[in-house]
Amino acid sequence: MNFESGSIYHVYNRGNNKQVIFFTRANYLFFLNKVRNEITPIADIISYCLMPNHYHLMIQAKELSDDAKHPLSRKLGTLQSSYTRAINNQENRTGSLFQQKTKAVEIYSLYDHFDKNDYLTTCFHYIHQNPLKAGLVMRMEDWEYSSFRDYAGLRKDTLINMQLAREVLDIDWENFSKDSYCVIEENKIQSIL
């Protein structure tokens, strides 16, 4: 996928054959550290959620000083391949951990003239609702491996760019937690996948 500076993307991938990709708490934290090191220098993280067998990132590709191809695609590959090597070593396994093709859906471009708010807000809430919909928690606040806790004011992480989120998302931040539990229509979910 070719990434464009300034555009916002929903990036996601899952384990081969829907297999587990995170085995321990340390695996989740290791992956988030890899995101910090590989992705945040070239993209702002607006939201994220790591699930036992897949992950979601909502990111904005940063403006770069040169006109070369944006390195985000290559860095996502580095993120996944280095994580796979670590898991293969840990689990005494071989082969690919992730599905071949990482999905990256452009949900907003600086050059688009349609109402971006619906797409962005839908993606943002969809990402955070994953653990709840999967039955992993009763409340989104209880899932440690998502940016929801940061936006709910329960944790101060530096991985996400909260200022950017406040600029690009049409969210009533005073009612963030309550509004986050609203049901998302299936046709809206399909627009961001």
Record keyword descriptors for this entry.
4 strands, 193 residues, alpha+beta, 38% helix, 7 helices, 4-stranded antiparallel beta sheet, Alpha-Beta Plaits, 16% strand
Molecular structure report:
The protein is α+β, with helices and mostly antiparallel strands and 193 residues long. The protein has a single domain (8-191), classed as Transposase IS200-like (Alpha-Beta Plaits, 2-Layer Sandwich). It is 38% helix and 16% strand. It is built from 7 helices and 4 strands; from the N terminus they run βαββαβααααα. It has helices at 25-38, 72-91, 116-133, 148-151, 162-168, 176-180, 186-191; strands spanning 8-14, 43-51, 54-61, 103-108. It has a 4-stranded antiparallel beta sheet with strand order 2-3-1-4. Strand 2 and strand 3 (54-61) form a beta hairpin. Helix 1 runs antiparallel to helix 2. It starts with 7 loop residues before the first strand and ends with a helix. The mean pLDDT is 88.
Low-confidence stretches: none
Total individual domains: 1
Number of strands: 4
Structural class: alpha+beta
CATH architecture: 2-Layer Sandwich
- Major sheet description: 4 strands, antiparallel
Order of helices and strands: EHEEHEHHHHH
Radius of gyration: 16 Å
CATH class category name = Alpha Beta
Report mean pLDDT, rounded to a whole number: 88
What's the arrangement of strands in the largest beta sheet? 2-3-1-4
**According to CATH, what is the topology?**
Alpha-Beta Plaits
Strand content: 15-25%
| Outline type | globular
| Portion of residues within helices | 25-40%
Number of helices, counting only DSSP H or I runs of 4 residues or more: 7
| Cα end-to-end separation | 15 Å
What is the H level of CATH, i.e. the homologous superfamily? Transposase IS200-like
